[in-house]
Design a protein that fits this description.
Helices cover 60% and strands 15% of the residues. It is built from five helices and four strands. The protein has a two-stranded antiparallel sheet with strand order 1-2. A two-stranded antiparallel ribbon has the order 3-4.
Length: 188
């Protein structure tokens, strides 16, 4: 039987931001497809929380086969494969090349932002607005800032190494498709 893990948060004020050490929380495991009414204990409070299916689906992360961080990496690989031929075809002085370069910088920043956002959800850490702006401005370099900020020094170094390996793989995909496009279209 497939089980889902649901994080139930109890805040006194709905606008208040959730803090895991300050606010109470409970993990509840229930059979997949079961009634979404859950009984949760939190300190002295006994509350029934009723969730509609959309809310329950957004809170249920463990049973889902969809992994958003991997999806972002797959999209990045497809983007690298599409970008390879696009950087070979126009000359470097043409306006089309500048447009492609600018669009690739924006798309790279958005992919890094999406990956960091899904990582912060998975790790249940706040994703500050200033960090979003830094990621949009600095793009790929901000990924390493996020990795060290969210994981600390030791895990940040390990995660940065894995990120560099992933970037190397994306560069190989980009280079291979650019080389294939150069061979097909006969460019030097």
């Amino acid at each position: 039987m497939v089980h889902s893990r649901l994080l139930v948060r109890f805040n006194e004020a709905p606008n208040k931001s959730f803090h895991p050490t300050r606010d109470s929380m409970a993990f509840i495991i229930f059979p997949h497809g079961a009634d979404r009414r859950l009984f949760a204990l939190s300190g002295e409070f006994h509350r029934w929380a009723s969730f509609d299916s959309a809310m329950a689906q957004s809170l249920t992360t463990q049973s889902s086969s969809w992994q958003p961080k991997r999806t972002v990496l797959v999209i990045a690989a497809v983007f690298a494969a599409v970008l390879g031929p696009l950087i070979v075809l126009p000359s470097e002085t043409s306006p089309q090349f500048r447009i492609i370069r600018f669009a690739s910088l924006i798309c790279t920043s958005l992919l890094v932002l999406a990956w960091c956002y899904f990582d912060s959800i998975e790790r249940r850490q706040p994703f500050y607005p200033w960090l979003r702006i830094v990621i949009l401005i600095f793009g790929l370099f901000a990924l390493f800032i996020y990795l060290f900020k969210s994981r600390g020094l030791k895990q940040g170094m390990r995660s940065s190494g894995l990120a560099l390996l992933s970037l190397l793989g994306l560069f190989v995909i980009l280079s291979a498709t650019a080389f294939a496009a150069a061979l097909i279209f006969g460019f030097d």
